Amino acid sequence: MKNIINLIVQKLEDNQRVDQFIANKERTLSRTRIKNLIIKSKLKINKKVIEDPSKKIFVGDILILEIPEPKQMSLKPYKYKLNVIFEDEDLLVINKSAGISMHPGAGNYDNTIVNALINYNKRLSNIGDELRPGIVHRLDKDTSGLILVAKNNKSHENLSDQFNKHTIKRVYQALIWGKLRPQKGKIETFIKRSSKNRQLMEVSFSKGKKAITNYRTLNVFENINIPTFSLVECELETGRTHQIRVHMTFKGNNILGDKKYKKRFKKIKNIDFNLEKTLTNLNRQFLHAKNIGFIHPRTGKQLEFGSSLPEDLELVIKKLKNACK
Q1: Can you give the CATH number for the domain in which 97 is found?
Q2: Claim to verify: residue 56 and residue 88 sit in the same structural domain
Q3: Which residues are catalytic?
Q4: What is the pTM of this model?
Q5: pLDDT digits (tens, 9 = 90+) for 61-103
Q6: Burial degree of 65 (CB within 10 A; 0-12, 13-18, 19+)
Q7: Domain that holds residue 205
C-alpha cells in the first residue's frame, strides 16, 4: 500500500526549495530520499508532476508526495565468497575483488556482488533501485577494494546522506603512466558523459557534475629501460562515475590496464621480458579502493577500514621496483 503525504505551503514557508520544505516537514524522510522520490516523478504540486528537487514553492501550493512500498527482491542468489571485513546489524564492509560487477545490468543479471549478498544475507536495504538492494555506492567492475553495504533502510539513508555531503573518506591507489605535474595537488573540474562515446565520461569546465580529486605521488618508477610509471594516492571529495580514471586521463597520465581510457603500450628497447609480460597481461585497471571512513549510522562513532593492494597489483609494483634497482 502506498503512503501519501499531503502538504500546503504557508506564508512563512514561501520561496523555499521543495526538497528542503518537505524535509523540514517530514523528519522521518532524509533529504536524499526525498530528492530521489521527486526525480522518480512521485511529487505533484498543484496536480502537476514535478521532477526537479530544487523547484521553489509558494504560499498556497498543494503538494502530494507518494512514497511507494519498498519493492520485493526477485534476484537469484550467487554462490560467491565475499571478503567481509566488518559486519554488524546495520551494515557490511566488503573488500571487493576485481572482475565482478556490483549489481545486475545488461548481459549479467546473476553473477554480481548484489546476487552474492542475497546468497550471503537476505537482510538488505530495499529503498533504492530493485536491482541494487543494499548498495549505497559502487566500484567499477575492474576496480578492487572497499565498499559499504546497508542492511536496513535507515542505515542506507544515513550513509547516502554522508556520501552526498562528501563527508565519507575514500582513498584509492593507482599506477599511472608517467609523472604527474605537479606531483601533489587537487584536480577540480566538471565531469559529464562523453559526446563521442556514451559509455565514457570526460572533463568539462562548464557542464556536468562538479568533481574534485586530491592526489599525491607515492613513488616514481623511472629507468632508461622501462616506461616511467607513478604510484599515486587519490582522495575523493566527490564520487563521480569513473572520476579518478577521467581525472588521470585529463592530466595525460592514464591508469595502467584501463581498457576504456587506455594508453597504448610502447615497446621499449632492452625492456625486461618478465616486466613487459606483467605490464601487458594485467587484465584490469590498476585502481584499488584502499581506505574508507564514515560515521556509523546507529552509534555515531567514526569508523575507518583499510585494504592492502591485492596480489596482482603487488606483483606489478614488485617487478617495477626490481627493474629500477
Answers
A1: 3.30.2350.10
A2: no
A3: 140
A4: 0.81
A5: 999 999 887 655 578 999 999 999 999 999 999 999 999 999 9
A6: buried
A7: 169-323
